[in-house]
Amino acid sequence: GQRSSESHKNSNQSFAIVSFNWDHVKEPYIIALWILVASLAKIVFHLSHKVTRVVPESALLIVLGLFLGGIVWAADHIASFSLTPTVFFFYLLPPIVLDAGYFMPNRLFFGNLGSILLYAVIGTVWNAATTGLSLYGVYLTGIMGKLESGLLDFLLFGSLIAAVDPVAVLAVFEEVHVNEVLFIIVFGESLLNDAVTVVLYNVFESFVAIGPMNVTGIECLKGIVSFFVVSLGGTLVGIFFAFLLSLVSRFTKHVRIIEPGFVFIISYLSYLTAEMLSLSAILAITFCGICCQKYVKANISEQSSTTVRYTMKMMASGAETIIFMFLGISAVDPDIWTWNTAFILLTLVFISVYRVIGVVLQTWILNRYRTVQLEIIDQVVMSYGGLRGAVAFALVALLDKEKVKERNLFVSTTIIVVFFTVIFQGLTIKPLVQWLKVKKTEHREPKLNEKLHGRAFDHILSAIEDISGQIGHHYLRDKWSNFDRKFLRKILMRRSAQKSRDQILNVFHELNLKDAISYVAEGERRGSLAFIRSPSTDNMVNVDFTTPLPSTVESSVSYLLREKAGPVCLDMQALEQRRKSIRDTEDTLAHHTLQQYLYKPRQEHKHLYSRHEIMHSEDDKQDKEIFHRTMRKRLESFKSTKLGINHPKKLNKIHKRDRGQKRRNSSVIPNGNIPSENPVQDFTLKEKDLEFSESEENNDYETLHLGKGVDFLANVTKQNFTDTPAGIDNPVFSADDDQSIYTKFSPWLSGEDTVVPSQRARVQLPYSPNFRRLTPIRLSNKSTDSFLLADGPEDRPRSFLPESTHM
Amino acid sequence: GLLSREDFQRIPELAINPLGDRIINAFFPEGEDQVNFRGFMRTLAHFRPIEDNEKSKDQNGPEPLNSRSNKLHFAFRLYDLDKDDKISRDELLQVLRMMVGVNISDEQLGSIADRTIQEADQDGDSAISFAEFVKVLEKVDVEQKMSIRFLH
Fold first, then answer.
1. If DSSP codes are grouped into helix, strand and coil, which group holds residue B87?
2. Please, which residues bridge with residue A399 across strands?
3. What are the chain B neighbours of A452 within 8 Å (beta carbons)?
4. Which domain holds residue B19?
5. Where does the EF-hand domain start and stop, copy by copy (chain B) (predicted)?
6. What is the CATH number of the domain that holds B108?
């Protein structure tokens, strides 16, 4: 002020070339300065690896805040800065929660949703009630001295101190790497308990306001109802905005530059809208992030995706840093300091003890319903990991001194509790975890065997589930997948994305990117990319990844890009490990191939068989392929049992022939007739055959199998049996549109368990000729091959039509 | 009440499960085409979750069907068609082909099979014996992956 007014005075006389306008920029300048200080602090912390390994960053930041607060205080004797609830709730909290939601591992989250909900709702209520009541009880005994609080005040305090805080949990657990189930439960709990906290807080605050006299049963009932309204309402708001966001992202193809902006703006709007409607804003933004993930990631471009990821992380990280720092600063405010030893101590004791009791009880109940049990160790970590943080502080700072007389006491206590949990518990949780040898997330690359057999297990389990009629855990997931594929995808995802964003393809895509980046990194290291052009066998680039890449790589951009925000740990060390373990190129190739091509188990895959219709969709080739193969095998084994004699001989002949030769070459030459021993009837197998694919007509299947199967097979055998040097072809994939001719050669005749390389496999190989042009030889004009011909000339909409679509 | 293969084959989901037919076969004892309820249950029993109290109870008796070892054995038998207690390269190839589909060339598949065997094979016989199978999967949470809660 002074100088500008001086210059103002002077301006009457002369023109000031340069002037110092502090007041002009004061507000944004200070904000920017604080952010800068916080970020610089982070750099300083990470200079010393030893310190950061032991002390969690959050603790360091709080201490820094205390320090800075002390400086400001000493300088000015005013506590000019503090964490105001408005700033916290409107600007600092949303990015953190959005980040949590957007990167939430959905499968894990929803798989454990029951447990998470139990802990979040029941657990928080339990904590709040017991803490509040106990404190009140102790107060009545008089140990605490004279306080101007009633039961409701204590309950209010209990409710705000009970909530486990997502910010603190994230901050600490990230550094600790517990196994993913444990992490998701604690983390999920911390996110979802917001609804409970909000309701309890509001309820008790209004109760306190209207006075304990007026609290009736009706009010309590209203409180309970409001819980449901707040939580479900918040969730719905979030989902609605997620839908909106996904929809918008579908059309942003031409405005790629501002694509990332939509994500943030719309999510933020969901937060504010929920806040406006007094619903749970955290739930809203969480679910917005959770639900929009898939579609947004599929729709937006690669660069936008990266931008979104990085911006989100940056904002979340920045917000978290500022929060903790300001927690420290705000503590240095003598105005609010009220000390009541008993109260403070007892609070600490109560929250810890009751949390442990709560966790143990709930886990005991849960374990009766979970396949994967939560063990003692898990429970210990869960109790110990229940950190309180800034949310509690912000809530308590919101309290009105007029209504809640002991506000300052509550504030002081909250500060101490927060400091205690973050600093002390944060410090000791790592050694605790190590000491207890918690099952940590494994960071090794799964071996080929594990992948393969693991997938086999999944298939087996699906089958057993189906056989035993059990629609377990996966029922809902299936229903959801169905719904998703039928409707949501069509609306929310771009055309191009719908086709290609299969899960496995995604992984393959990412692996490819990783590969490409590795190549470039290697090129950078060697000075040029010339090595790629060196001739090598099988078109594989002989880049030697076995030599450990020197540390110069780390500084390159490519390394940065490789860092993927994984679900659980963002620890650079872990990522390093993962990267290093895939060294061998061949190994990598094998892994990639498996990853790409292994059939998905039913759990991740759409249910083709709905009860009412045979669905056909271009995406689900997997089911088609398997179905064909299975049916063929069955008919063949059926035939071999029923027809018997000559059959095996033929089998052997072809068998031997096939084995000897490479299956890759040449075309199929339909040969002359090989007389069939079986009486052949012209058999029309039209409608009925289609039916055996339908589940309703199951009874027909058997008859079909018995009667028609024979004849149908016989028919087919009758005509052309090819002399296929290439042996087994998959006629399904002959892309011939001529629909009436499919069977020229009978794959099933070549032996039950011989591997069937499909036509498509051949087509894709660079040097295999395309033998789609098979000389059509009609069967007797009436018999049609059933399932191979589902889309007969009669224009059946259902099709197992082999690809007239693009391959 | 006897079940035949057709009864199983009528379950539509099995038709689109790559290992469907083999799993059906696993229900039927050697050479037979019918299975009674007891046999049916026996196979399903492999998939009961492993419970803690069972671990300590029956140390002396025969190993329960749903032990980790038996679960693995169930899977092993799916691969090992000729029942020689080894998964040969061909058998592995067959399973791979079933599980992988049509887009991989034979060469690639062969090389994957080779590497898989290589990873697991310890005695150098180019086949995976049951012991090697168990060893290579020691880190996999078989108990969870092969368990269903049947009756609450």
1. strand
2. none
3. 96, 99, 116
4. 1-46
5. 67-102, 108-143
6. 1.10.238.10
Is B13 in contact with A466 (Cβ distance < 8 A)? yes
- C-alpha A27/C-alpha A31 separation (Å) is 6
Is residue B145 predicted with pLDDT exceeding 50?
Answer: yes
Per-domain boundaries in chain A: 85-316+343-405+432-436
pLDDT-derived band at A469 (thresholds 50, 70, 90) equals: low
Q: Which residue of B has its CA nearest to A694?
A: B12
- Smallest Cβ–Cβ distance between A761 and the set B95, B102, B133 belongs to B102
Same domain, B37 and B68: no
DSSP secondary structure of B105-131: -HHHHHHHHHHHHHHH-SSSSSSEEHH
Q: Is residue B54 part of a domain?
A: no
Residue of A nearest to B141 (CA): A454
Q: Are residues B101 and B33 in the same domain?
A: no
Chain A residues whose CB is inside 8 A of the B139 CB are: 442, 450
**pLDDT tens readout for residues A187-223:** 888 888 877 887 888 888 888 777 777 767 788 888 8
Distance from CA of A611 to the nearest CA of B (A): 10
pLDDT digits (tens, 9 = 90+) for A233-249: 999 999 999 999 988 88
Nearest CB among B44, B120, B137 relative to A464 is that of: B44
Residues B72 and B147 both lie in one domain: yes
A472: confidence class by pLDDT, cuts 50, 70, 90 = very low
- Average model confidence (pLDDT) across chain A: 67
Cα A509 to Cα A506: distance, rounded to the nearest angstrom: 5
Nearest CA in chain A to B151: A470
Q: For the residues A681-693, what does the mean pLDDT come to?
A: 33
Does residue B125 belong to any structural domain of this protein? Answer: yes
**Residue B51 forms part of a structural domain:** no
Cα(A88)–Cα(A398) distance, integer angstroms: 11
Is B106 at the interface with chain A, CB within 8 A? Answer: yes
With residue B150 as reference, give the H or E element that holds it. Answer: none
- Judge if B39 and B109 occupy the same domain: no
Residue A702 CA to residue A698 CA, distance in Å, equals 7
Task: Tell me how many domains chain B contains.
Answer: 2
Question: What is the reported pTM?
Answer: 0.57
